Amino acid sequence: MSRRIAYLLGLVLAVAMLAAGCGDDNGGDGGGGGGGGGTQEEGTTEGAKVIDPASMENASGTVKYCTGQDTTGERKDSIERFEKANPNIKIQLVEFPASADEQRNQFIQRQEARSDDCDVFGADVVWTAEFAQQKWLYDLTPYVESRKDEFIPSTLETVHYDGKYWGVPKDTNAGFLYYRTDQVDSLPETWQAVYEDAKAKDGIVYQGASYEGLTVNFLEMAYAAGGSVLNEDGTKPTINSPENLRALEFMVNGIKEGAAPKSVVTMMEEESQRAFVAGRATYLRNWPYVYAIGQAENSKIRNKFEVAPYPPFEGGKTAGILGGLNLVISAYASNPGGALKFIDFATNEESMNRAASQFALPPALASSYEDPEVQKALPFASELKQAVEQAAPRPVTPVYSQVSQAIYENVNAALAGQVSPEEALKNAERDMQQALETF
């Protein structure tokens, strides 16, 4: 891999990770999948505006595109190509701060004011239910239904709520298991076997600090063990279950028995990748952006590691959690037809392939992973596609931020030995119930 591609890959996927909320924007069987609450009972979004796909045919005028800072340059590139192909439409790029929380707040402020500042918004995969429940988004079901077969099914679950589709997947992401090829002859077949091997070698590191990253890490294990977070209609917590207890006990015992270092309870993405790239760990759970960092010329593990989709949990299944970015249309858009025409362009095969091959953004279209230029730019394309396919969304609920906080605070307390796994799940259930009662 050239230095230019390595640098670009690291930069772009790091930005994608932050924009997606810890790698953030999911598990093998889709939305309801491990998460629960993926298929809400229809009716909570009754009265929402519905897009007319024909509205984009003769669209013209200005489309305001609100998204996070265009650090990679892909957004501007996409706009330039769109305007060249559609001279009757002008795209006005509105860049929000890099922080996902700030982007969310900026959009909420505008929607509460019924502002038309944003026609198209680049939305984190975890915001769908919250925004749709408030009727802040156009229902894009008539458009998405015509293209469903093009997308990796799991990515569509991130825009699915109340039986409808509220956006179009743009960039996706899923975690990898990194392993040292100079220490591991063949990848262990289960998570349990990975931890046994890690205990005998230099260990495994992951994101165990009390933040969104731990929610993702725990859900990857919990879903694989057969657990869930919310019931099917998203009204009750199911976090306190035998399956989730098995997953949490496994993680806690991994620290107690030395498979993972005690310091993992303070690690986020960067701390864990630095430990692995410095040669201090045999295994790492992290996002694809680490690949380029590990292959940099100053890396101690250059050409000494590989990546793989997650193995199954013994007695369970394989699972993962999706990150990524979706494109949605504001209910207060002044040009919904033009907005849909831009989304149609930005998510077509040519645009997805270009975003992946030129800017290293993982595509949501299945066909993009077969493109030679994409495979050249993303050496792990086949592994990434498999990881995305076996991933699922995080819990689909309008109070996701509170649900996530209930997970990461209580799971971190268990990992740190402050409470038992049983007590941690009971506390998480209590906290989630309180959050669910607010809507």
Keywords for this entry:
single chain; disordered N terminus; 6-stranded mixed β-sheet; alpha/beta; 439 residues
What does this structure look like?
The chain has 439 residues and is an alpha/beta fold. 41% of the residues lie in helices and 13% in strands. The strands form three sheets. Strands 1, 2, 3, 6, 11 and 12 form a six-stranded mixed β-sheet that branches. A four-stranded mixed β-sheet has the order 8-9-7-10. Helix 2 links the parallel strand 1 (61-68) and strand 2 (89-96). The protein is globular and about 65 Å long.
Question: What does the main sheet amount to?
Answer: 6 strands, mixed
Q: Give the beta-strand count.
A: 12
N-C termini distance: 50 Å
Based on Cα principal axes, name the global outline: globular
C-alpha Rg (nearest Å) = 21 Å
Secondary-structure content class: alpha/beta
H-E order: HEHEHEHHHEEEEHEHHHEHEEHHHHEHH
Report the uncertain regions: 1-41
Number of alpha- plus pi-helical segments? 17
Summarize the structure.
By secondary structure, this protein is α/β, with parallel strands linked by helices.
